[in-house]
Amino acid sequence: MVFRVHSFELLKACIEDILSTIKPGEDDQKKRSYAIQELADSIYSVGALRGATVKPFGSFVSNLYAKSGDLDVSVDLWSSSRIPISKKKKQNALRELRRALQIRGVARSVEFIPNARVPIIQYMSNQFDISCDISINNYPGQIKSRIFYWINTIDERFGDMVLLVKEWAKSQNINDPKNGTLNSYSLCLLVIFCLQNCEPAILPPLKEIYDGNVAEETVFYDEKHVDEICVANISRFLRQNMGQRNQTSLPRLFASFFSQFLGSWDRSSTVISTYMGRFERIQDNPSWLVKPYSLFVEDPFERPDNAARAVGAEELEYIERAFNYMSGRIVGGALDDRDELVSLLCTPSVGSILGGIRANRCTNMPSSCQLYSPVAANQYDMDLFMILT
């Protein structure tokens, strides 16, 4: 075992600046609300969709979205029966919606993906410049988003970690399921897994928060019922762990995220299970053996589905290299180079903003001062960090 010790002051400052740049403000929230209303107005003009309701879900509902994030919306069609709407009917409804969006001129770059596991329309709002993903009766997405909203109330470090990891993944081109890498949902689950396995645990196994299977609750989604379950179980977890709160700083947790998924564990025979809060062996659950995957990140709310099912073998190697490189640079000296940190952690658009922040600080600060001063109000213990290599 070899331990390396570095100062995390620069990483702390970079993280604070990244979060201050990508976290949405009140105007961003309003823009998304207006985009939702814009969609609703378009739907009301389509006779076949009258009576439908528009329900946002995803990161906007769970409060895990960045300024540049997509907006996920479910168009819920009314049904007098408890029989789920067929995929063909969903496809036809989306075709009608696509036509309405084009007629009203509210959208550009409209793309209809009818044969996806969940048929969707993707478009960019002309007025609000927001990328929107529209699906039909997406109750599983709504339920999961609501559960994530409550998980996000347990500890503020979870939401910050999600935003940082997603920004890093985009910068490394590994947050694109269309091209065989990780979707944002699986990245959130990896963050949860990391926070379940620190000492003491920041998050519990997700079976202790919500033990249902949303596949069985896809008709007449009851938001109030989901809220009541999550609130009661989270309150129980917090009471049981009162006085044992994990005090690890956000930069330390962020650095540990990359090392946690390295090592000798066999990707082809192991499941990352946030439901149980630990690694599981595929052979121990027959339902996991139905189809082989390059990487198995169990969907804790739609078991035994794999949230990372899009990841291919070659793409997994690329993902592993990105994790390895990030972990190696943290240990090997990137924490002493601000420009390298920014290039590692941020997309070019965010990095260019941070460059402006740096220039302003250099201009306005005396030469005897450090390059950074803290941005956030919270203070972290940043003296030392020890990481196993």
Automatic annotation (TrEMBL):
Regions that span the bilayer: none
InterPro entries cross-referenced by the UniProt entry: MTPAP-like_central (IPR054708), NT_sf (IPR043519)
One matching Pfam family: MTPAP-like_central
Source species, domain of life: Eukaryota
Chain ranges of the Poly(A) RNA polymerase mitochondrial-like central palm domain: 13-149
Protein name, as recorded: Poly(A) RNA polymerase mitochondrial-like central palm domain-containing protein
Species annotation: Urochloa decumbens
